[in-house]
UniProtKB/TrEMBL annotation:
It holds the Pfam family MFS_1. It is a multi-pass membrane protein. The chain crosses the membrane at residues 20-39, 59-80, 87-108, 114-140, 152-173, 188-207, 241-265, 277-295, 307-326, 332-353, 365-385, 391-411. It is found in: Cell inner membrane. Its main location: membrane. PANTHER family: L-FUCOSE-PROTON SYMPORTER (PTHR43702), PROTEIN TSGA (PTHR43702:SF3). GO terms for molecular function: fucose:proton symporter activity. The gene is fucP. The keyword Transmembrane applies. CDD domains: MFS_FucP_like (cd17394). The keyword Cytoplasm does not apply. This is L-fucose:H+ symporter permease.
């Protein structure tokens, strides 16, 4: 069976009134983990200064965060299946807050190893939130519009990705001075973040979640609900799901490497100060936000898988321009990389969850685990960047080629 034609999507409602409050609340969570992930990219540069790290060493920031996805993916999925979406969200928020508060003793010890532990626990929290939130949002309405709902929610993730570098640059990079080892700003910032997340967890505990569609129930229109059209298959016999895991691995690999060294590119190739490059990162993330709103609109007239393939080709072109060190044309291409990247994560996630029925929650765990690509790729890009930061952007071309194949061919539900 092929995926539902795009014509069917225009007739399906975005969501239902009974899901509205829950959808608003869960959508807000996308923003909070967007703040946390992009704050890590600012920490990457800040730690190079205050802890005297090389680019390759500082990539451990991304390794700790994204490595947590690999470790936490399956446990989070099992927890969600046993205790439900709401409790899964509360677990994620709790780990997020604990990891943030652990920055206080890490800063007091001035230990990069201790920071790595704090980042790993924080990463376990946001991994749990991602594992839970994507199928949660997909379940809050008709499956034919799940692509639109997830891309809409991910637009607020992009808003968080704007807030992260803006706040991080202001508090961490603005007063960077050669030889400084002061970590007070890091400690203060993460106390505030931990307090906000703990408050959100308390508030969410009072939200009443409506009963969601049981994937085992026979429905009149199997395309409208997430019903397994081949219930005799195991999860890994669903080839579109397997390809979604592979595509997500390479997608987040490209994202993590690109974001981790954005400030370095601005400093080394454009001559910006770290703070100025950090401010440009706000624009960089703003383009991702714009891309998600544009992408959500375009999916009403272009099939999501086709738009994914088109944007992957655009990013291959952007990487080629960046790697040539053309000055402003290359920097503009670097900015545009995030515009075209915008729809990739949520669209791969949504396409991978189509028609999996009772396998959906387990599938979400494995697709979230694919995010471990973000733990590995910054090290590879960092090694190339030690010699030339622009040449490092040849590497994501491999990633976008895999994403193109998924969007062009291997997305199909069979």
């Amino acid at each position: 069976m092929q995926a539902t034609p795009i014509a069917g999507q225009s007739k399906a409602a975005f969501t239902e009134n009974k899901y509205l409050i829950t959808l608003i609340f869960v959508t807000s969570l996308f923003m909070f983990w967007g703040v946390a992930i992009t704050m890590g990219d600012v920490l990457n540069k800040h730690f190079q200064h205050v802890l005297s790290l090389t680019k390759t060493q500082s990539a451990f920031v991304q390794f700790a965060i994204f490595g947590a996805y690999f470790v936490m993916g399956i446990p989070a999925g099992l927890f969600m299946k046993r205790f439900g979406y709401k409790n899964g969200v509360l677990l994620g928020l709790s780990l997020f807050a604990i990891g943030s508060f652990l920055f206080v003793p890490a800063a007091a010890a001035a230990s990069f190893t201790f920071f790595g532990i704090a980042l790993f626990i924080l990463g376990c929290g946001i991994s749990t939130l991602e594992t839970v939130a994507h199928p949660f949002v997909a379940a809050l309405g008709d499956q034919r519009t799940s692509d639109q709902r997830i891309n809409f929610a991910q637009a607020f993730n992009a808003l968080g990705a704007i807030i992260g570098p803006a706040v991080g640059s202001y508090f961490l990079l603005r007063n960077n001075s050669e030889g400084s080892t002061d970590l007070t700003s890091v400690k203060t910032l993460y106390i505030v973040i931990g307090s906000v997340i703990a408050t959100i967890a308390i508030l969410f505990s009072f939200v009443k979640v409506p009963v969601l569609t049981d994937p085992h129930v026979v429905v009149a229109d199997p395309d409208a609900a997430n019903v397994d059209v081949e219930p005799g298959k195991t999860l890994f016999q669903h080839k579109h799901f397997v390809w979604a895991v592979i595509a997500q691995f390479f997608n987040v690999a490209a994202q993590a490497g690109t974001w981790a060294f954005f400030i370095n590119f601005g400093h080394e190739k454009m001559g910006f100060s770290d703070a100025t490059a950090g401010n440009y990162m706000v624009l960089f993330m703003g383009l991702m936000l714009a891309g998600r709103f544009v992408g959500t609109f375009l999916m009403r007239v272009i099939a999501p898988h086709s738009l994914l393939a088109i944007f992957a080709v655009c990013n291959i072109v952007m990487c080629l321009i960046i790697a040539q060190s053309f000055g402003w044309p290359s920097f503009i291409a670097l900015l545009m990389l995030n515009f075209f990247f915008s729809i990739m994560f949520p669209t791969i996630f949504s396409l991978g969850l189509k028609n999996l029925g009772s396998h959906t929650q387990q599938a979400s765990s494995f697709i979230s685990m694919g995010v471990v690509g973000g733990a590995i790729f910054p090290f590879l890009m960092g090694m190339v960047a030690e010699k030339d930061i622009a040449s490092a952007y040849y590497l994501p071309i491999i990633c976008y080629s895999v994403i193109f194949l998924f969007g062009a061919k291997f997305y199909k539900v069979k």
